[in-house]
Amino acid sequence: MLVSFVVTPAAASNQSEVTDEKLTSMQGASPYVEADTEEEAMKKLDKIEQENPGGISAQAASVRFGPCVLYPESFHTRKSSGHKHGGVKPVTVCTKKVTGIKMASQLRYKNALMWVKTGIQVPQAATDKDLKPGEFRYKRKNWVVKFQQTNMEYKCEGTKSHKWSASTIGRLRHQGRTLWARVYASPISAECGPH
User: Fold this and answer.
1) CA distance from start to end of the chain
2) How far are the Cα atoms of 7, 16, 104, 149, 156 from residue 193, in angstroms, in the given order?
3) In whole numbers, what is the pLDDT of the chain averaged over residues?
4) What are the strands, taking DSSP E only, across 96-151?
5) Measuring CA to CA, which residue among 77, 167, 172 is closest to residue 131?
């Protein structure tokens, strides 16, 4: 199980602002790639994104890079909070059992021409129950493990409509190796103001 997880400035979401072009090139699913350090992983993921704009297919990712894939989920306001809070719920799915998964998500909103970070980066680790192998259906495919981040609760500043996205970095352990993935959620408009 992953004991600690801090996404450092080397991560994909290291820039406070991201252009439309960069955000668009990083949308879609991401394979988990093996790397000794986060910095090394981000360089590998940069190269994959340049070669495959719009994301990697789950089938290619699971065969070429490892047993797991990270999928972004779009920003949405929470009905349970009367639409006064919002967040994202990215998903990691695996074709084989893994010993630990952790994801950290950071919201971004569109400010003129750039996507700007807002709020804090929110981490969540999979529990033993989350890591228990089973039969899970996601994106029209069967998986052995499925873990979804559900703990993001960003308080909206009013109800003026803004465009939202988020960056998520995942880290997992499989057969003693550390693997990393990174995704950006597709932009979506929501009646939620940033602070």
Assistant:
1) 35
2) 26, 18, 22, 22, 5
3) 86
4) 100-111, 114-125, 136-138, 141-143, 145-148
5) 172
Sequence-distant (≥ 6) Cβ neighbours of residue 115 within 8 angstroms: 17, 18, 19, 20, 23, 108, 109, 165, 187
Q: 29 and 69 in contact (C-beta within 8 Å)?
A: yes
Indicate the pLDDT class of residue 105, thresholds 50, 70 and 90: very high
Rg (Cα) of the chain, in Å, rounded?
16
Q: Which two tokens stand for residue 12?
A: 């994909």
Taking only the tens place, the pLDDT of each residue in 59-74 is 444 334 779 999 999 9
**Side chain identity at 12, as an amino acid letter?**
A
Tokens 């529990």 locate to 127
Rounded Cα distance, 74 and 90, in Å: 8
154/42 Cα distance (integer angstroms): 26
